[in-house]
Amino acid sequence: MLTALTPPVKAAPEYRTTWLANVTIHTAGGLLTSAMVGLALAAAGRLSGETLDRPVIASACLLLAMVVAARELGVVRLPLLQARRASKGAWGRRFGQPRASLLWGLDIGLFFTTWLTYAGAWWLAAVAALGVGVGWSAGLFVAYWLGRTIPVWLGPWLVPNATVSAWIETALAPLRRSFRAIHSVTVLLGGVVILLAALPSL
Amino acid sequence: MLATRAATACPVGQAPREHEADLESIRGKATKATALVVAGAVASAVPLGLADPYLAILPCAFVLGWLNLVGL
Lengths: 202, 72
Known about the structure:
Oligomer: heterodimer
Helix content of chain B: 55-70%
Helix content of chain A: 55-70%
Strand content of chain B: under 5%
Shape of chain A: globular
């Protein structure tokens, strides 16, 4: 999405407005579907919550966090369960902007209908199903979406000129190991916090 | 083009040498931005966690979302 929505040239003022509109619509679309994902997981969690205590589910979330971290750090080799699908770039040509930006946002905001980068998304899904609260679960995926969209907003700053737009992934490739490590630590810390938060309900 | 895809399934090519300075610039900015995101998440998790422990997970989710895109 970085390359699709980053302006191909350092934007002339009249293009900046178009870019701002596209990115805003893209963000709004994803906010809607990501909130829906959170709500759906909360609803699923409420069903299982009838039979499982929250501390039990929180313990399972910590265990899952450890599995995710082990996978991302290369300790264990596990396939990443994901839809092998990318949001269609052709929508840009077919529908034009800003409709394509909206569709990309709606599509990618569903998270599990397109490629995932890390397994932490599944950990987040398990956490959202904890049954803490419907609004909380929706907020969780909204926070995830906002974090995911910020790089798109930073695109014009991140990309120094038009000719390197196509090489963003190449540029970031050497940082992947560090990103995986940060991802693993974040998931582990989150798992510990969730378990500690759930314990008082014993 | 882009959206999300597994890095291992689509190997990235070698950029022309004349772009190396620009790529280095992108790497530097991404590193700084990631550091700010993580620092901001830690800073916000503490007061949120004191208010309600479950709220401390929201900054975690934000960081995971950030990494999901920059880690492509």
